[in-house]
């Protein structure tokens, strides 16, 4: 009724990548355009790299993601390399100047082992002095409390590529330590449920995150609490990190 390919298309409708409109995209885009070679870890449907090429990036661009349907959509642009795999499987010795992990993809790394193996993979793919830039939601902001159908800001209505009117919302299934298990529900406007999605997201605090980075031989060059590059404070909703490979 609603295939993985449909879900990848829906992702793009719900999350249009646009540095002229969205502050998170305008934070990342100059970094990407200014780097000779870029590895986008957890690239999903590839929108960011598509736009980088479209706007004139001439260097090596590689998107890496374990989600086949998302990567199939990314492959609509053939002048970018697309690799099916996880962060831990990033190309060793590839000498990238920049690795990115955006759209809170870092929060898909659930266990300490996932985090360590992913950081080791990204470290191995960067050149010495290369940078890894990513964000994770700050646990103090408790973003999951807004992921409910009773929050109008969390209920999206879109028309999909085949003209169907759809409604999408989230709910929290459980919380165990710093891991929040959520579900997404996609329905027609009359309430007919088309598909459910489940996902675990880890909310690392700053000290734990920086401990993992140090252990993986990354030096934190800058850390922000918001896309305007404000420092992390008590009301920050994000932990945005620029880490340099030691
Ligand atoms: C919320 S999407 C973000 C996609 C894209 N970066 C964006 O900003 O729109 C998270 C992505 O992370 C990918 N992902 C999950 N686990 C991963 C892992 N271990 N290594 C790399 N990517 C992973 C998922 O397949 C998914 O495409």
TrEMBL record:
Q: Which InterPro entries match?
A: Methyltransf_25 (IPR041698), SAM-dependent_MTases_sf (IPR029063)
Drop me one GO molecular function for this one: methyltransferase activity
Q: What's the protein name?
A: Class I SAM-dependent methyltransferase
Annotated Methyltransferase domain ranges read: 38-130
GO BP annotations of the record are:
methylation
Recorded hits in Pfam families, A to Z, give: Methyltransf_25 (PF13649)
- EC supergroup of this enzyme: transferase
**Cell division recorded as keyword:** no
Alphabetically sorted, this entry's keywords are: Methyltransferase, Transferase
Instruction: Indicate whether Ribonucleoprotein appears among the record's keywords.
Output: no
Q: What is its EC number?
A: 2.1.1.-
Annotated organism of origin: Streptomyces sanglieri
């Amino acid at each position: 009724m609603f295939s993985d390919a449909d879900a990848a298309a829906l992702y793009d409708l719900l999350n249009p990548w646009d540095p002229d409109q969205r502050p998170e995209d305008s934070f990342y885009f100059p970094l990407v355009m200014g780097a000779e070679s870029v590895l986008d870890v957890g690239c999903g449907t590839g929108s960011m790299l598509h736009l980088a090429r479209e706007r004139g990036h001439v260097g090596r661009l590689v998107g890496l993601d374990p989600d086949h349907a998302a990567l199939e959509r990314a492959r609509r642009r053939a002048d970018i390399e697309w690799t099916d795999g996880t962060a831990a499987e990033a190309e060793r010795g590839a000498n990238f100047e920049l690795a990115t992990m955006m759209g809170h993809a870092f929060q898909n790394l659930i266990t300490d082992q996932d985090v360590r193996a992913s950081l080791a993979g990204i470290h191995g793919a960067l050149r010495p002095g290369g940078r890894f830039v990513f964000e994770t939601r700050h646990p103090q902001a408790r973003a999951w409390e807004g992921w409910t159908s009773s929050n109008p800001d969390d209920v999206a209505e879109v028309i999909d590529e085949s003209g169907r009117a759809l409604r999408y919302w989230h709910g929290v299934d459980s919380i165990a330590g710093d891991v929040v298990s959520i579900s997404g529900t996609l329905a027609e406007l009359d309430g007919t449920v088309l598909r459910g999605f489940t996902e675990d997201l880890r909310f690392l605090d700053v000290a734990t995150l920086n401990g993992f980075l140090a252990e993986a031989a990354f030096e934190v060059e800058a850390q922000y609490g918001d896309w305007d590059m404000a420092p992390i404070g008590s009301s920050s909703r994000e932990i945005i990190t620029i880490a340099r490979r030691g």
